[in-house]
User: Fold this.
Amino acid sequence: MGRFRLSEPAGDLIAWLGLILMASAFLILTMTREPSLPRTSFRYHKKTEPFALVILDPGHGGQDSGAMAGNVLEKDLTFDIAERVDRLLGSQGIPTLLTRTGDSYVSLTDRAKLINRADHAIVVSIHFNDGPRPEASGIETYFAAQRTTGVPGIASWLPFLQKVGNVQPNVESQSLAQFIQEQLVAHTQAINRGTKAEQFYVLANVRHPAVLVEGGFLTNKNEIGKLADANYREQLAVAISDGILKYRDTIKASSDNIDGAGP
Ligand SMILES: [Zn+2]
Assistant:
């Protein structure tokens, strides 16, 4: 066979050194590993944790002011609410990401790209309404009934697979919209305009559960007045944060039940 052979003592030494190395590697691994986490717990954790990141998308920004009522600009309100939700979720230990960090313009395609680069996330886009009639008021939350980016990568050029992606129902988004809408109405006593399906760009072109909150009408005097009050804006933010937490806890509870009922 022509194999190189070590003399007996040298071979023993290497065997011992190998054994010591293995043992110390094992010790280091054991000591640096998070305590009491069995091998399967990460999978379990991933399965029951509905998301690892909340992406907050304050609508408009920069040269795009959105809806306007005198000197009240939609872009300022959306950013104010996003920062409040960011703080509230942070205090619960939930990681967050904002699609814009100040009064800057970020296009819808760039927002979607940023969102799609993230893993295991949910998205809450924040807007304020304007209507043709000054009486229109209340809060509504949108979700996309279908995702247009259902099949990523190589399959996307196959028309029949693309179609499968297109008709994929978006139940997580609908559920998230319902939890948030419920909390918004409970916290603000605003008129409940319900949850609605709409293929808005940031909802339909992202691969995560995504909703869009319309937190009130800037064409309604009463709602402009309420939105000028920081306490009211804080209630809007608390409601969004509570809706997210309830969505998380409900999914966790139902997947725990499924785990419990399993073999
Ligand atoms: Zn808007």
